[in-house]
Design a protein that fits this description.
By secondary structure, the protein is of the alpha/beta class. It contains ten helices and twelve strands.
């Protein structure tokens, strides 16, 4: 590995920080905010985020002692499509990208989880970039970058930045045949930890192992197949969903084939050039009651 991966990571971070620092982030307006009156929610924010977000951002506390709290973070078009080659084409806007998607939804997360297709062979790093969010993360006692978790059932290539910068802690969630295919690459990269589950249906076991590794809060950004598996296994606590006013994305690609249900905690609206954008925080029912998902996973 003769390439200067340390330098490439530094350049990537500098570019993303500049992009966030120079973005025009307009404030959101609040239609609904029930979070302050509900148990089990942690308010997150500082003066800067609360001014732009219009109040605190909420995250569910871990509902089970052996599992992390899990959130899904998605943007959908006006007609509910969530799949696009470039997620920015879905029309969430600058506030969604810099304040929510690459900000509040992961600023308190120990790890960010994505499918192999979403990380595009490791050409991206999943972190926070605006200096106010970097400072907020530091104030929470968290490392500069969350743990990078990639889920794959088919294997992946290791030529991207994400898999070659030892400063990044990476975990691969996979299945035995895929782990066998990646054996040599993993041996060359001791900073990457495989979590091998017998089959994709064993996601609860994989999350238990992630919790044992110190991950109490997990932010999942896709793709849609991985999100569906987490929803079907009743492993999701919070859904952070931004709906744009645009028609975009691949047709017939909703986040879920059935209604999410749950409790609407927050609804916000974009302003200015982001007018028509709607952000919603939905807390799912399986995380709210005393029976919770632990019983469903027994």
């Amino acid at each position: 590995m003769s390439e200067d991966w340390h330098g490439r990571l530094a350049a990537f971070v500098a570019r993303k920080e500049h992009e966030a620092r120079t973005a025009t982030i307009l404030p959101l307006t609040t239609e609904i905010d029930c979070g302050g009156s509900m148990a089990g929610l942690t308010p997150i924010g500082n003066e800067w985020t609360q001014r732009l977000f219009g109040g605190p951002f909420y995250a569910s506390a871990p509902p089970h002692p052996e599992l992390p709290a899990v959130s899904l973070v998605f943007v959908q078009s006006r007609s509910g499509n969530t799949v696009a080659n470039d997620p920015s084409l879905l029309g969430g806007g600058e506030a969604d990208k810099h304040l929510i998607y690459e900000g509040l939804s992961r600023v308190a997360a120990d790890a960010v989880l994505a499918g192999a297709g979403t990380v595009r062979n490791g050409r991206i790093v999943l972190s926070t970039w605006h200096h106010e969010l970097v400072a907020l993360r530091e104030s929470l006692g968290l490392p500069r970058h969350p743990i990078q978790i990639v889920a794959t059932q088919r294997g992946l290539t290791f030529d991207g930045l994400l898999f070659n910068a030892p400063e990044l802690r990476v975990i691969l969630v996979t299945v035995p045949p895929c782990a066998d295919l990646m054996r040599a690459e993993l041996a060359d990269r001791p900073w990457i930890t495989p979590v091998v589950m017998p089959s994709p249906s064993h996601l609860p076991d994989a999350l238990r192992r992630l919790h044992t590794a110190g991950i109490a809060r997990l932010s999942c950004i896709g793709g849609r197949t991985l999100a569906g598996q987490l929803l079907d296994a009743h492993l999701v606590d919070d859904v952070y969903l931004t709906t744009s006013p645009k028609e975009a994305g691949e047709p017939n690609t909703p986040l879920s084939a059935r209604p999410l249900g749950g409790e609407l905690i927050v609804r916000k609206h974009g302003t200015g050039v982001d007018e028509g954008v709607v952000f919603e925080h939905i807390r799912l029912r399986q995380a709210a009651g005393p029976a919770g998902r632990a019983d469903r996973m027994a």
